[in-house]
Design a protein that fits this description.
By secondary structure, the protein is an alpha/beta fold. It contains five helices and ten strands.
């Protein structure tokens, strides 16, 4: 398949059903941070954008949601693929996008470089979509906050080092308002964390 043909293929076979299915999984993950959501529908975007990340883009992005892409993604067919299938434009300015995408192994800039939103307009924040190698086998982290009863331990492998570090005024904050981490290994699983979730290194091994 040529790079040009990749732009026009790889979307959901059934756009309405696919988007609804992925949206339900995403909302469930944000309501219960740290749980592993399974996507019954994935996309086939151009590499290096992962299948789950592509599904997130097809579900949440549109002409009103500018996106920011990592340098590697920007040089691929991903910008044209996202634009063709969602209508979303790509911006080079980090404080403008509603979504920022990072392929597996990509360096993640400081979260404070992206829009944090406000108490009045939390929807003006940037959601970071970060692919990881796997959702287990890494440094155990314990998450606490709304939607988490007694703390939950996750151990994503290949998580950027910046993630568990403090953000702004909230030590251990996982996100610039919202963040989801599609699994770049299998392409069909993801957890998510909102801006009130706190993460710290777990003693569990």
């Amino acid at each position: 398949m040529t790079a040009q043909s990749q732009i026009y293929s790889g979307a959901f076979a059934d756009p309405v059903f696919g988007a609804q299915s992925v949206f339900r999984s995403l909302m469930d993950c944000f309501a219960r941070p740290g749980i592993i959501g399974r996507l019954s529908t994935v996309a086939a975007p151009p590499a290096p954008l992962g299948e789950a990340s592509g599904a997130v883009a097809l579900t949440l992005c549109d002409h009103d949601t500018p996106v920011w892409l990592s340098p590697a993604l920007s040089k691929s067919s991903a910008p044209k693929w996202i634009a063709f299938h969602t209508g979303a434009g790509v911006t080079d300015t980090k404080d403008e996008p509603r979504f920022a995408f990072f392929e597996k192994g990509a360096a993640v800039p400081g979260f404070d470089q992206f829009a944090l939103g406000t108490q009045e307009y939390p929807d003006r924040s940037t959601t970071l979509v970060v692919e990881v190698e796997a959702l287990e086998g890494g440094q155990p982290l314990i998450g606490r906050g709304p939607g988490i009863k007694n703390g939950i331990v996750i151990a994503p492998k290949g998580l950027p080092r910046r993630v568990p570090r403090p953000l702004g005024r909230q030590p251990g904050d996982l996100s610039a308002r919202h963040r989801s981490r599609p699994d770049g290994a299998r392409g069909s699983a993801l957890p998510a964390a909102h801006h009130q979730t706190r993460a710290g290194v777990s003693a569990c091994m």
